[in-house]
Amino acid sequence: MSVAMQAVCGGAVPRKRHMKYRFGRLLQRRAADLPTIDLPENKPRKPNLHAANLSFAARVIIWVRDRYANNAPAIYKAAYLSRKTYSAIISDENHVVSKRTAIQLAFALRLTREEADLLLHAAGYHLSRSVVEDMIFDACLEANIHNLEDVNHFLLAYECRPFVPQD
After folding, report:
1. Are both 66 and 126 inside the same structural domain?
2. pTM to 2 decimals?
3. One digit per residue, pLDDT tens: the chain, 167 residues?
4. What range does the domain containing 98 cover?
5. Domain check: are 8 and 74 in the same one?
6. What is the DSSP string of 50-96?
7. Measured in whole angstroms, how far is the alpha carbon of residue 81 from the centre of its chain?
8. Domain identity same for 27 and 97
9. If you count DSSP H runs as helices and E runs as strands, how many of each does the chain have, helices first?
């Protein structure tokens, strides 16, 4: 053992296994000290969608559950997504989605402009004022145009790539 290591550790180097055990016990004690929250059964739960720790998948799940009574097939069909893609997004919180997929889900979920911004931010994207497609998406969200066929007409009018329905 080096002289520097002895000075830092006081002569003994702690074992990693022992440190893991101590850290695990510390977490168990802290978890036991946390208060439990009982929600009344008759009061509907309001999701806090502004929480910074919600992932893209968590936000999608909350909106599908609260607005569409867990009607997932209607959502992924309206978003022109395959069942496999939708399942990958929902089942894996670390799944990386493309910007267009996030926008497709925002339109299918009929989100407001602010909610769409939250969803895109959770995926790591934003709508730019210098990209024609993004300006079209922004205008459609502001005008409450959520049908992807209507959005496709605007995209084609400005010679942008349209959304393609999945079979």
Report:
1. yes
2. 0.67
3. 455 445 445 555 445 444 444 445 544 554 455 455 454 555 555 555 555 578 899 999 988 888 888 888 889 899 999 999 999 999 988 899 999 999 999 999 999 999 999 999 999 999 999 999 999 999 999 999 999 999 999 999 999 999 887 54
4. 56-157
5. no
6. T-TT--HHHHHHHHHHHHHTT-HHHHHHHTT--HHHHHHHHH-TTPP
7. 16
8. no
9. 9, 0
64 and 144 share a domain? yes
* Cα distance between residue 91 and residue 7, in whole Å: 48
Residue 96 lies in a domain: yes
Q: Does some domain include residue 115?
A: yes
Report the residue count for the chain. Answer: 167
- Asked if the structure places residue 167 within a domain, the reply is no
Tally of domains in the chain: 2
d(C-alpha 81, C-alpha 59), whole Å: 17
